Amino acid sequence: QVQLVESGGGLVQAGGSLRLSCTYSGSIFVINVMGWYRQAPGKQRELVASITAAGIINYADSVKDRFTISRDNVKNTVYLQMNSLKPEDTAVYYCNANRIADLRYNYWGQGTQVTVSS
Question: What is the pLDDT tens value at each position of the chain, 118 positions in all?
Fold first, then answer.
């Protein structure tokens, strides 16, 4: 089992910044991808950014050049730095840990609310 605990959400004005943190623990050795997803009301959950164990990073087009995903293996934490926030970034953000092509290993955090006011 892998446990994920998110923090850092909140209310911010458009143009502002927030940093989300996801601290992981447990059988993390089975995981080779960590990422951030978000789900807005009435919409499907979507990938925001991911980082593999090899350091390969992927971003959704909507957040490129504004968001940065990073990982601190000493602190067992994955971060999502969000700059130039827009009202359309408002959503519940979820941390995810999974093993590529192996559905047995797919874990989610409890989610943290990000609200961007216009």
Answer: 899 999 999 999 999 999 999 999 998 888 899 999 999 999 999 999 999 999 999 999 999 999 999 999 999 999 999 999 999 999 999 999 999 888 889 999 999 999 999 9
Phi, psi of 61, deg, nearest 5: -55, -35
- Written as six digits, the tokens of 63 are 């957040």
What's the rounded Cα separation, in Å, for the pair 107 and 77? 15
What size, in residues, is the chain?
Answer: 118
Taking a C-beta distance cutoff of 8 angstroms, is the pair 15, 118 a contact?
no
- From the number of C-beta atoms within 10 Å of its C-beta (0-12, 13-18, 19+), residue 49 rates as buried
For tokens 């996801």, the residue is 22
CA 46/CA 3 separation, integer angstroms: 21
| Measured CA distances, 108 to 35, 75, 91, 96 (Å) | 10, 19, 16, 5
